[in-house]
Amino acid sequence: MLPMKRIAIVRLSALGDIVNTAVVLQFIHTHYPDAKVEWITEEVFAPLLQNHPLLEAVHSINLKRLKKEKSFAVLKETISHLRSLGEFDIIIDVQGLLKSAIVARIIGKNTHGFDKTSAREGITSLLYKTTSHVDYDENIIKRNCFVVADGLGFEVSDAMILNKKPIFTRGKRNNILSKTQKNIAIVIGASWESKKYPKEKMVAVCNELKENCLIIWGSEHEKQDALWICESSPFATIAPKLSLSELMHLISNVDLVIGNDTGPTHMAWAQNVASITLFGPTTTRMIYETPRNIGIKSPSHVDIFKINKDDFSIKEIEVKEIVLQAKELLNGI
Prior knowledge:
The chain is built from 13 helices and twelve strands. The strands form two sheets. It has a six-stranded parallel sheet with strand order 3-2-1-4-5-6, with helices on both faces. Strands 9-8-7-10-11-12 form a six-stranded parallel sheet, with helices on both faces. It has helices at residues 15-21, 24-31, 46-49, 63-69, 72-83, 98-107, 140-152, 158-162, 199-209, 220-232, 244-252, 263-270, 319-330, and strands at residues 6-10, 36-42, 57-61, 90-93, 111-114, 130-132, 183-187, 212-216, 236-238, 256-260, 275-279, 293-297. The chain is of the alpha/beta class and 333 residues long. The chain has two domains: 6-162, Rossmann fold; 183-330, Rossmann fold, CATH 3.40.50. α1 (15-21) packs parallel to α12 and α9 (199-209) packs across α10. The chain is globular. Helices cover 36% and strands 17% of the residues. The termini are far apart.
């Protein structure tokens, strides 16, 4: 292996994708224990990565502000910031979008990413010095690991992923957790309405499990849904407003997470916490299933090359199926 002194990981968004990419840090550290790994991300997600023991630095940019203001001064400031980061041995774009590829190319010339047929936006391959091929329909965690490992000259096996250490620090046990009941985090939000399991059915899940169900919310709309669930079930409690770090610490200390295909649910897998992820318009490709991390998919057919955001089939997932799987996981089966 060639010596690696500075490695840049470009993964700007979204929360779940960042969570599912950060697993590569421990594999990089195993093969290059002396390398300095730095991460470039959107400003809103930087707090999650700050102070990570395997990261030398986290560099944030605000592309949303740039898109909103359309300011040349902000653009110039962003480019100047990226160019000031200095030289890297390699810059790996794990996102595979034009915006992330441009960011990687501004940082330096030694760029690596997905090839034309592997990237979500194939044109990005023109901006990389070297590329990797991995089928687009491959499991998302395997894709992330492969493009990084291939760029750095090593391999990541299924056994390595299955036996990973928790990706983020665990944090202290939150005082809202019960000492007498099982603690279940219920993630009700998602980026699309069609990815959300109906709140009425989530009430039924809470009532069937009869444990300490903590309803996780992010937006004001989600908060109102969370309050409705809590009013409808004596076993549901609304979680307080949480920062990304606080959310990660809470997820790390519960017994089970049940939620939609979204960032907070993916945190459970990251922290080796049992989880059930519910899928409607997306598939279990978005998670790495283990005996303790399972997915339940609705009956609909999904074309991952053309996702149908109007597929609301998640509502067809039966409450009894979720409850059965939850009880098995809580009992350690």
